[in-house]
Amino acid sequence: MPRKCCVLGCRSNYDGTSEKVSVFQFPIDKDLKDKWLEAINRKDYVPSKYAGVCQKHFIEDEVVRSCDRLDLKTGKIIRYDGEGRFRITLEAGAIPKLTSVDLGRALSSFKSTTSKTLQKSKATKRKRKSMEHESSSDEDIPLGELRSQYLNIKTEDHIEFDNSDSNVDMKSNIKLLKQRFLDLLDQYEKLKHKHVELGQEIEALEKTNIELKCRIF
């Protein structure tokens, strides 16, 4: 029965997996063994005599593949003829490190996260452009022209007032509403400008975020 890899998340030599790989037993040397335990990062883990770490967690230069074997009957070295199996061992002092299997998982996770970020960024841009289009289509008259036309309106041209107190109050209220309308136009223009600036900042931050993630890997 092949030894199974004890690294969390690794399924080397477990039931249900077709791939069989070499698994190296924990070293007897205490200092080196402690370095292995630190490398696999399993809290309070005490390896049994059958526990090991598979070759996927060592860098390629530390995995030694020997293709020669000693014939015990004759005492001669038999050269590898291409039909036998490699004998796989480790370089002295080898310690488990981040290798292709771990990097592959990390890269896969990164690609998934990056893809979601890009999709979210594109969705945000589409939504922002849609809002800007709806906003512009609702304005049959540009704000500057609307303001100019509104300022040219004379209240007296539309409503006839007499000199009664109630009509004087109404006229005063209309002037206040007119000023309030102009104030709201000013606020709207400022908010619209701010909306565009924030949209540009968001695009820049999303681009920087993606670039930083790419540098990590």
From TrEMBL:
<dbReference type="GO" id="GO:0005654">
    <property type="term" value="C:nucleoplasm"/>
</dbReference>
<dbReference type="GO" id="GO:0043565">
    <property type="term" value="F:sequence-specific DNA binding"/>
</dbReference>
<feature type="domain" description="THAP-type">
    <location>
        <begin position="1"/>
        <end position="99"/>
    </location>
</feature>
<keyword id="KW-0479">Metal-binding</keyword>
<dbReference type="GO" id="GO:0008270">
    <property type="term" value="F:zinc ion binding"/>
</dbReference>
<keyword id="KW-0539">Nucleus</keyword>
<keyword id="KW-0131">Cell cycle</keyword>
<dbReference type="InterPro" id="IPR026516">
    <property type="entry name" value="THAP1/10"/>
</dbReference>
<keyword id="KW-0175">Coiled coil</keyword>
<protein>
    <recommendedName>
        <fullName>THAP-type domain-containing protein</fullName>
    </recommendedName>
</protein>
<dbReference type="Pfam" id="PF05485">
    <property type="entry name" value="THAP"/>
</dbReference>
<comment type="similarity">
    <text>Belongs to the THAP1 family.</text>
</comment>
<keyword id="KW-0804">Transcription</keyword>
<dbReference type="InterPro" id="IPR006612">
    <property type="entry name" value="THAP_Znf"/>
</dbReference>
<feature type="region of interest" description="Disordered">
    <location>
        <begin position="117"/>
        <end position="139"/>
    </location>
</feature>
<keyword id="KW-0238">DNA-binding</keyword>
<feature type="coiled-coil region">
    <location>
        <begin position="174"/>
        <end position="215"/>
    </location>
</feature>
<keyword id="KW-0805">Transcription regulation</keyword>
<keyword id="KW-0863">Zinc-finger</keyword>
<keyword id="KW-0862">Zinc</keyword>
<dbReference type="InterPro" id="IPR038441">
    <property type="entry name" value="THAP_Znf_sf"/>
</dbReference>
